[in-house]
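Box S1 | Example of a co-folding query
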Amino acid sequence: PVLVVDFGAQYAQLIARRVREAGVYSEIVPHSISAEEIAAKNPVGIVLSGGPSSVYEEGAPSLDPGVFDLGVPTLGICYGFQVMATTLGGTVARTGAREYGSTDANVSTDGGTLLHDQPADQTVWMSHGDSVATAPEGFQVLASTASTPVAAFANDERRLYGVQWHPEVKHSAYGQRVIENFLHRGAGIPADWNAGNVIADQVERIRSQVGSGKVLCALSGGVDSAVAAALVHEAVGDQLVCVFVDHGLMRQGERRQVEEDYVASTGVRLVTIDARERFLDALSGVSDPEQKRKIIGREFIRTFEQAQADLVAESYEQDGDPIRFLVQGTLYPDVVESGGGTGTANIKSHHNVGGLPEDLQFELVEPLRTLFKDEVRQIGRELGLPEVIVGRQPFPGPGLGIRIVGEVTQERLDLLREADAIVRAELTAAGLDTEIWQCPVVLLADVRSVGVQGDGRTYGHPIVLRPVSSEDAMTADWTRLPYDVLARISNRITNEVDGVNRVVLDVTSKPPGTIEWE
Ligand code: XMP
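Box S1 (continued) | Returned holo structure for xanthosine-5'-monophosphate
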């Protein structure tokens, strides 16, 4: 792999993705890793990420200097560039001139290997206070800006490279090409990492992990579990059984998408548990959001455990062979963020769909553990999964249960499902699906307002539209939807959905508002 050394501040994940977009497999490691540990991973290249610190600050993240003696081609970015400079005998100065945002850079001479085939004048994205004042001996300066004399350098003999700007962000006009030049020209790594290879590799791994054992997978209707199950099915066929719990809190058509479209395209064995009544009963009389979440989580676990017990019993009856493995759609960002061997702080504890119990006596199969979301989607498409599932926007595990402000009842669920289907249809028709991260549709079941329709007074409920744009759901902004689209949605909902006489737009960013209302 190419190892991306993480100096903090979220840049490492973006770099790791860009390296993969260049067709090279990458992994993130903490800056505290030793040179021996790095060597043990047999990296074909190393990228040092940016970070929030100054190299002279006390406690600033450092790197084992031995890393530069491994003979592994290395690219330093921003803070990583400065670490490389100071470690190898260059100097970093606190110039006081902060560069932040779009900056004009001047590429000297032919740009060398790193800046090969790039315009002499280009826009780059900067974010730094300190600057490299002198490059280490043996290094050639490749670029400068008005306030940064050494904005990029290279030592082709040792295959060490560095840039002060952030090539991983899209605002750097030729950023991706810097990364590609480093990988393909500087380090000589071929671009051969793609969805097809990942599938072949994972199929191999799953087969060797699972052998002839039986495997269980809980499908949620979301992208991750669907792709994970499809990969496992590709590997071990009918040794896999999928369970889908219909808790009645799904949106229109979602059960059918799993039961028909997904099964048709993958051929997986699927057991659907109809638990709609059970969830409704458990939620009866409850309006507190946290209590609703707890009840839904608890009932999901109980239902799943029951299904599991039945399947295990059935499997024993058949051939005395219990189900030993459980598939989970854990993604790479979850692994990195929960400190999965990288030493990064736990940023957010993930409330996964249904939150499967920890004492389940299963060995986990996690074929997506090394992948980012966009890669999972690509693999799903490669495996022939339907677009309605692969392209699906995030939808919370507790479903519509947390999009009804007030008690959850059958009638309210039906009403919200209808309104939600209209919103989704209109957003898709307007070609806005890729512009919005997700658009929760919320029913304010405890609120009523007076309206007039035909020649009569109405006393109905409002529906809230909550379209948001986001990179990762940690922060979000409300999406400025075109007025005509909003008008069409409003007209259709108030005309077609009985009991709704008002449509309102949520114009709150996150923070302070969360994306969901509960
Ligand atoms: P909030 O409301 O916290 O949501 O801004 C952030 C993202 O997480 C989703 N979400 C959930 N997903 N189980 C999930 O699988 C949950 O309990 C849950 N709660 C919120 C939400 O839709 C948004 O994408």
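The mean pLDDT is 92. Residues 289-319 form the longest helix (31 residues).
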